[in-house]
Amino acid sequence: MIRHTGGLIFRALSTLLIVLVIAFFITRIAYRNPAAMLAPRNASQQAIDAIAHALRLNEPWYLQLWYYLYRGPDIQGAPMGIAHWPPALGYSFRKQTPVTDLILSKVPVTLSLALGAVVIWMTLSILLGVIAARRQGSWLDRLISGFAYASLSVPTFLSGILISYFLFFQLSNHGVFWFPSSGYVPLTKDPFEWARHLALPWLTLALAEIGIFQQLIRASMLEVLGEDYIRTARAKGVPEWRVYYDHALKAALNPVITLGGLELAVIMGGAIVTETIFGLDGVGRLAINSALEGDFPVVIGTTIFAAASFVFCTFAVDITTRWRDPASLS
Amino acid sequence: MPEIRALASVQDHVLLGHGEVVNSYRSLLLRALLRERSFRIGALIIGFVTAGALLAPVVAWLLGHGVTEQFRDTALTEMGLPTGPTFEFPLGADGNGRDVLVRTLYGARVSLAIAIPATTLAMIIGTAIGLVSGFLAGRVDRVISQAVDVALSFPFIVTALSLLSLNRGVDGKPFVAPSLVVVLIITLFSWTYFARLTRGLVFVLRRSPLVEAAQTIGASKARIIMREILPNIAPVILVYWAVQLPTNIIAEATLSFLGVGVQAPQPSWGNMIAEAQRSSLYQLQPWFLLGPGIALFLTVAGFNTLSAGLRNVLDPHRRSG
User: Quick check: A24 contacting B, CB < 8 Å?
Assistant: First the structure.
């Protein structure tokens, strides 16, 4: 177990390192003359040169890469290099902020978005999946499956627009102001407003996932329900709801955890579409805006952040599934 | 290996010659598929969408409306607002006075012309890599798995954006057509799916009697991979081609929606929906959104249904319902 975990950590770290190197090269080649892109409009040549100098753009590429991978000279008083804690990912001239601070300031929004959506889609998928498995072949099962397939076929940008059209625009047209169309209120400030502002984005993200997860849980449940220990539990007189929600679900949840971790990772890395439609200032919007502006230190930073959340989630999934399966411990 | 067992059972059927006539494997498979309701429905929808894509120029000619042609006199009201569905504009017009129906049909061409090559390319690359990784195992497999991890870790949209600007030359002109870059980007982000799938299938087969027999007669590794393993896993991989295709259609539409994929004025469902959203006109005139929205939904739902049917027949283990 310990050896396995060590191997996983080594692999995770090497993945992150390779991602950093590739992201560095892609952005450095893609954004020609980044200093000019970062400088304010009508900036003098001297100002552009000063930015290029501060970002060490004139030094050879291997030195620049080394500054990222280990330690570099301070930029505007901000440290540089991932040997720091927290890893210093450079300095954004556009935002006049160190990249790490910039990303960390957006994490609460993205985290709230991701975790809320996970809770909603998992609860609904489990309920709908178990009901469908229990009444396999009935009209209810077919109705739920139909809904699952339909929701699977709507891209988030379309469902997001439709949700904001019906639940924001049409409702407020009729004098019902339940859901705001955009904005974010921190949880610590006002939990109710926090949930109210995030309700529509949560719904959008959850809708995109329910289709897959409901089908997955249903299939997995049907497989488990044929096992001997389920028959044993029934024979012992365990109440039917416990057979389903306790005995069977526990075993059926393994593939759900695996896929759930991956989907959560992708959302953490930036639910760009949802954040764009609902005007949430999260990591995803930061990433796409800086990519459009050519703010390459932020692009590298957000790429690393997305990769790190992906690596972390796969790691967590691996540990969880191993921990849930006693056979792998011995 | 349920898929292979299923195929084998179909083959047994053929060999035993149920009924008077000994049917070929292909005709039995086709009959099994046609019995499958979701396959029939999916095929019907896909046929409909494909026909729409192929007939786009005919419709444009019949209506006399070009894809990018603007009819500011007839399609816009005096206020400058687009008209709703009329006889002349069956699905209404957009904010620039262009025909939504014609653009939606042309959008089908763009969508399929990007998603199909991208998925096919990803399938070829991913299968090749998965075959090598699964069969050779050991160090090669570790290196390839690491590469798959790296590819999966990259965030899709931001990386796509960087790769698109990579395509811009010094004078701002692209080196190759942007749609080609979109194909390559989608390929880059979906080969891992096929690589993992193939690797898993090969892992099971490489210790099977089939491969052992080939090894005994001294077949080379290349021969075993190409002649023994590949034909056995090919049907399953083709099924998952159909599973991945709708995902890639959504990927293209999402990129175009964010302005990263197919560029205006070339119509794509993604950028048409983006235009409707940006102008907020869809709130008053929803038909704007309806054309490309329904087309996108139909296409994706069609392929999802079709692939579910394919899976039910070729992979009975996952049978639903």
Answer: no
